[in-house]
Amino acid sequence: MASVAVIGGGVVGLFSALTLSQRGHEVTVFDDGRFDQGCSFGNSGLLVPSHFVPLACPGIVAKGLKWLADPTSPFRIKPSFDPRLARWCWLFQRSCSVAHVERSSPLLRDLALESLAQYRHLAWTGFREAGLYMGCTTIHGLEEEAKSAEVAMALGLRAEVLDEPGARKALPGFEGAGAVHYPEDGQIDPSRLMEALVGQVKSHGVALLREQRVCRLALDGGSAVAFGKDGSPIDADWLVVAAGSRSAELLRPLGHDLPLVGGKGYSFVVEQPSPSLGAPVILVEDKVAISPLGGQVRLGGTLEIGTKPGEIDIRRVEGISTAARAAFPQFGTTDPPSGTVWSGQRPCTPDGLPYIGGLKGVSNLTVATGHAMLGMTLAPATSRIVADCVEGGIAPSALDPMRFS
Length: 405
Ligand SMILES: Cc1cc2nc3c(=O)[nH]c(=O)nc-3n(C[C@H](O)[C@H](O)[C@H](O)COP(=O)(O)OP(=O)(O)OC[C@H]3O[C@@H](n4cnc5c(N)ncnc54)[C@H](O)[C@@H]3O)c2cc1C
Description:
By secondary structure, the protein is of the alpha/beta class. Helices cover 32% and strands 24% of the residues. It folds into 2 domains: 3-41 and 192-257 and 353-399, FAD/NAD(P)-binding domain (3-Layer(bba) Sandwich); 54-185 and 261-348, D-Amino Acid Oxidase, subunit A, domain 2 (D-Amino Acid Oxidase, Chain A, domain 2, 2-Layer Sandwich), CATH 3.30.9.10. The protein has 10 helices and 19 strands. Strands 4, 5, 6, 7, 13, 14, 15, 16 and 17 form a 9-stranded mixed beta sheet that branches. Strands 9-2-1-12-19-18 form a 6-stranded mixed beta sheet. A hairpin with a 2-residue loop joins strand 15 and strand 16 (296-305). Helix 1 (11-22) runs parallel beside helix 7 (190-203) and helix 4 (98-121) packs across helix 10 (375-390). The longest helix is centred in the first third of the chain and has 24 residues, at 98-121. It is globular and about 65 Å long. The model has no long low-confidence stretch (mean pLDDT 97). Flavin-adenine dinucleotide binds at residues 7-13, 30-33, 37-40, 43-46, 213-214, 242-244, 246, 250, 265-267, 289, 300, 344, 346-347, 369, 371-377.
C-alpha cells in the first residue's frame, strides 16, 4: 500500500482520495483553499452522459468566432500575446474534426455511465434521477439537436425528440421550438455533494489539509517531490495532481508543459418561478444551464478564456439572465441578487478530453485534470482510473496527459 499525496481538493481530488483510501492506501489531500472554493462548488451540477461530444468538435470554431463580436454571448477569448494560449488555440482548432468526435464519444459515454452508476449507488451524493432537456429556441437548433439525439441513440443512450407542444407539456411555460429529452442524465447539488464528499473521505481516514498550497514540484532522480508552503518536502510515495485549471503550472518544473487553460463560467441562484421548473434544462442556442434545486433555480453559463479568475463580466451574466427569462417568461426576475454571482475556472484541454495518467520520466505521479464542462460527471470514473494508475495500471491512451508533446 502506498502513501499518496493528492494535490487539490476539488471534486476530482476528493473522489480520487476516497477511492484510494477505500483500496487501502494512506491518503493526504492538500488544498490551497478550505475545500470550499475551486470550480466544483457553484457549477450546474448536471451529470450528463448525453454530453458525449467533446468541446473540440466541428463547427465550434465558426460559432465561437461569431460569438466573439457579442459582449453578452456565451463565449469570450481575451486576445493576448501569451504563446501558451496561442498554442492551445491552435491545438483546439486542429482537434475539431469528425474523426476526433467519433473516437472520443464512446469513451466519454462509458466514463459518464460508469460515474452515474456510482452516483446512483452512493446515497450520500444526493443523486437525483432528474433527466435533462436540451431546450431549443429555434427550429434550426432543434434540427441540430435531433441529429445529436440520433447519434446518442446509436451509442445506446435513451433520447426523445419533442416538438413544440411536446416540449411545452414537459416544460410548463417554455417558449421554444422543441427539446430533446435525455431521461438517463442525473443531477446533484454541487456544494452539498462537496460537503458530503469531505465527510466521506474524513470517515475513511483521509487527512485533509486546508490552506496548504503545494508550492512547487521538482524531479529527484526520476521521482517527483512536492514542496509544501513552508518549503519542506512532502513525505509521500505517490503524488496525484488534481489542482484543476492550475495543474499545468505545477507540472512545468517536471519538464512537461501541458496545454491547459481556465475556461471561466458564472452561476447564480434565483427563486423558482410559477409554474415551477422540475427538471434541468440546457438552452441550446445560448448555452445556459437551468438547474432546479428545490425552491430555487441555479442559472449557469459562459466560457471565458484568458480573463482573470474571479473577475465578473456583468454583460455575460446579463446574457444568462436574459436567455433564461426569454425561454421561461414566468420567471419574475432572473437577475442575480447583488454580490451573489459565482465564478469558476474549468480546466480545459485543447481536445475536450481530460488528462488522466502519468508523465514520461516521472515514476510516481498521476495527473487528473482537464475535465472542462464534465468534472462533476466524470469524477467517480476518473478516481477509479487514478487508483488503477497508482497500483501500476495504465489509463486509456486517449487520456494520456502527454498526447500533445
Ligand atoms: C458555470 C459552470 C457550470 C458547470 N456545470 C457543470 C455540470 O453541470 N456538470 C459537470 O459535470 N461539470 C460542470 N462544470 C465543470 C466542473 O465544475 C469542473 O470540471 C470541475 O469542478 C473540475 O474539478 P477539479 O477538481 O478538477 O478542479 P477544482 O474544483 O477547481 O479543484 C481544484 C482544487 O485544487 C486546489 N489547488 C490548486 N492549486 C493548488 C496547489 N498548488 N496546491 C494545493 N491545492 C491547489 C484549488 O484550491 C481547488 O480546490 C461547470 C463549471 C462551471 C464553471
